[in-house]
């Protein structure tokens, strides 16, 4: 039993309009699905990815207008990486961030790779990382925005987890999900343990979790810009149907098998309280829309379709410029 890499990362926004503007106009990603929170269909769920919605390229946001500010801490998914193909791409993004007033840091080496940290308008903690393309394959660059293809974001990864005690989370990653510890690097805060790197699938940033132990932080108080969960890839339905029994046999309470229509999912919490999801690669976002029309209309899974009129009436209009 081994997950194949990062599938998606889901976070919270209090302003879906500005969130859409940031991820499409500034970051050049594609809105591949405009849907609703299936557990609370009165609010939007927006999916940003590459040109075709490839698993492993997808950053999603739940629209919660009343969400307060985030107070960072442990028991958190504290940084989400986005893969770019070269150091020259980082130079392009540094200039673009300056042009658009995006808070960002300098080029920094992390685990032997060039990176640049940045934030969106709500403080989402994000990072660009140079990927040499030797691990999990890149997605398909979206070229309909102003970002040149050679500099475009190609996928997610790595994802950083911040916890009080790393040992139990590390054990879940290796003994349950099939990750391998491949190294460590210097912590960002003096006096804290080294950050541990775990890899799965074909490797590279798209298959990595970076585990940070912090004794100096309180538990995170999540809000706008915080991450709700990270999902890992399950490539086949056959594997997916085995995972729920496997997790429960190893002492985890799970959501059971949940059909999200665009993928099938299983949710559980690791011992430090971070929410993990296992998600299938199939059937994908083109299930109910043509590839060229992804994200244009409100998409609802079949079980919500009979309530379309009610749901559309409860949603505020989105100011989305294409």
What does this structure look like?
The chain is of the alpha+beta class. The chain contains five helices and 16 strands. The protein has an eight-stranded mixed sheet with strand order 2-3-4-1-13-16-15-14. Strands 6-7-8-5-9-12-11-10 form an eight-stranded mixed sheet, covered by helices on one side. Strand 15 and strand 16 form a beta hairpin. The radius of gyration is 19 Å and the shape is globular. The protein starts with 5 loop residues before the first strand and ends in an 8-residue tail after the last helix. The model has no long low-confidence stretch (mean pLDDT 95).
Search tags:
322 residues; globular; alpha+beta; eight-stranded mixed sheet; 5 helices; 16 strands; 34% strand; 17% helix
Secondary-structure blueprint of this entry?
Elements: E1 6-13, H1 16-26, E2 30-37, E3 40-49, E4 58-63, E5 76-84, H2 87-100, E6 108-110, E7 113-119, E8 125-130, E9 155-163, H3 166-176, E10 180-185, E11 195-199, E12 208-213, E13 227-234, H4 237-249, E14 258-259, E15 263-269, E16 275-283, H5 308-314
Parallel strand pairs: 1-4, 5-8, 9-12, 13-16
Antiparallel strand pairs: 1-13, 2-3, 3-4, 5-9, 6-7, 7-8, 10-11, 11-12, 14-15, 15-16
